[in-house]
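Side project, low priority. Logging it here so it doesn't get lost.
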Amino acid sequence: MSERASPSPDPSDAGLGQADPPRWIGRIHIGKVGLFLVSLFLFILAITLMKEGARSLAPLIRDTFRVTNPLNSLGFGWLFAYAVMSGSPVAAAALTFFDAGAIDELSTFTMITGSRLGASFIVLFIGFIYVLRGRSRLTSLSMGLLSLTVTGTTYLVALFVGIGLLLSGHLHQLQLRRGALLSSIFDLVFDPIVHRLLTVAPRWLLFPLGLVIILVSFNLFDRCLPQMAIKESHVGRVSRLVYRPVIMFLLGAGVTMISMSVSVSLSILVPLSNRGFVRRENVIPYIMGANITTFVDTLLAAVLLNNPPAFTVVLTEMISIAIVSAIILIFAYDPYQRNMIHFVSWVSKNNRNLGIFMFVIFLIPILLLLI
């Protein structure tokens, strides 16, 4: 793209800055805006379809999968995220199941937590791809292992904090007042589409259709992101700040808020690590920040459902993980960092340790689902 913008070395820098960028940058911006609008439309449509289809799937969730308690739902959300290689669609599914009455408030909370634990696996998967391409085994796998470990340790502690907050009822008063109005506006657009589909398909089919559409919407949204800004010179300038935990925490939160996907923001760490821009010692605060703002899209889904308790569940997720992360960063960051690095080094030391780790992270959600 940059080669087409400057076909020859003759023009001066000033001339290029004034003439060429508007021709191709303008087209890129317009294309990305259009792609963003399409992805947003599909996201809202997907939530609407999943909400409608979840009503018919309630008996399937309770009786066939036996998701009847918070531990079941934790394992179910965890495995579900493995299956679709993403956490956000599973979190949205948890809200629609809750809205349909298939699971209760605590089970919704733990299913969303499980979705985030499962979503971290995508970073390890990206690391395996880099290993297959001949990159350093230790460098490529460390980011995925660190992402899984940090996410697991913080979310499991936040699980108890969040359950306490939900049972206390203190957050139930915090609601987005414009949610009902926003939902009503969207109903005028999307209800006719849903009714049309119901004339040609059974109601239960709307849920898997919505799940496919929401995966497509996230894929399209990923393409809206400024990929070139993540690669070369910009990262080089930012790399001077990676030794400051607060900066990395804010960077992780910001990148995830923009991309609306923790899988995207954490997967960036693998190529950056291979390029030498970041080291595993510096990314723990980044992962913590990403794990908080990853709930932005789930919060939007709760607003679209116009379900106040669902909004409270997502808000509780954000607050509980923020509390745990803040305590670690302020009071116990150095020992926490050492322990996480030591554990990751042990896992990546040889194939036996890595095999044990992989076996455990697949066995735990299966056992939880069977409880």
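Brief comment: The chain has 18 helices and no strands.
Revisit when time allows.
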